[in-house]
Specification:
Helix content is 29%, strand content 27%. By secondary structure, the chain is of the alpha/beta class. Helix 2 runs antiparallel to helix 3 (32-40). The two termini are 26 Å apart.
Length: 222
Amino acid sequence: MDEKQRRGIGMTSQRTRERLVQRLRNEGIRNESVLAAIGNTPRHLFVDEALSSRAYEDTALPIGAGQTISQPYVVARMTEALVDDGIPNKVLEVGTGSGYQAAILAQLVPEVCTVERIRRLADQAQRRLRQLGYRNVRVRFGDGNAGWDGDGLFDGILVTAAPHGVPPELLEQLADGGRLIAPEGEQGQAQELVCYHRQGEQTTRTCLGLVSFVPMLRGTAG
């Protein structure tokens, strides 16, 4: 992938990205590292070419297989909630999708593990992230409800689809002092963006606002 593709032109240019960043700042995103990561990431390369002119609108867009790339404000809000009290060393993302959220995280934390239940999306995201040079991201095809077995605990977990309630397997993989950010609730009804914060044997739950996400499903798909 050459530098011209990465920079974009017209509605995918760096100037358009900067306008998105200013819009997010006006909407309340305060973490400058998160805003810089948004501004540095070529979102137009994470959507279908036919939608690239809309890539820097603050809206969710379809990426195929019934999935979407999240609204930039939601990506920024969830990322900010994850890193505001300190940069985690290792983060698990559940629901890779196009790889955009993983690309944002990769610029902020040393190690990102991301799991996707739809094989086609997992393969596409892995290729895209490699082409763009995000070497600290590992992509796995699997059921995100089970998390990422066999690699220790995570300082942060970010879930990009909405379960009725966060699976206990994910909470069990959260390290002491770690945070888990996830939407909760049924599609088409009020969903809450929540933060689970583990402190020793206690885990607190805080609501961060209302959101709308696709449902978190069990199992895998080709």
